[in-house]
From TrEMBL:
Keywords: Signal. This is Uncharacterized protein. It comes from the Bacteria. Residues 1-29 form the signal peptide. InterPro entries: DUF6152.
């Protein structure tokens, strides 16, 4: 009986150690920006068609030169801390974005800064 309790305790500690080790790895994996080509930066201006203000990242969709784009912005907390509120990225607003295109998703880009109502807001 003592042996079984000892093994149970070891198994539980091993499981918890492995689980604790995997949580940070999954959080780090989320922030991999390797899929964006930083050698091909671009700037575009257009009207926001759709916006999301939620974790893990805010986003906007715009139609620019007959192309529908999905732009990945910063997380909501960072957006708010830098003055980019839900209302500022509301559909119908015009903005300028500077960012990097995704290497395999031709309609997606990661945005470094956004200009809203004449104010440049750094997102990274």
């Amino acid at each position: 009986m003592q042996w079984r309790l000892a093994m149970s305790s070891i198994s539980r500690r091993l499981f918890l150690s492995l689980a604790a080790g995997l949580v940070p790895a999954s959080a780090i994996a989320h922030h991999g920006w390797g899929g964006y080509d930083t050698s091909k930066s671009f700037t575009v201006t257009g009207k926001i068609l759709k916006s999301t203000f939620e974790n893990p990242h805010c986003g906007i969709e715009m139609e620019v030169d007959s192309k529908h784009w999905h732009f990945v912005l910063a997380p909501p907390l960072r957006m708010q801390a830098r003055g980019a509120t839900r209302e500022l990225i509301a559909p119908g607003k015009t903005c300028t974005v500077f960012g990097y295109p995704h290497t395999s998703k031709p309609d997606e880009a990661r945005i470094e800064y956004i200009v809203l109502d004449g104010k440049r807001i750094e997102l990274r």
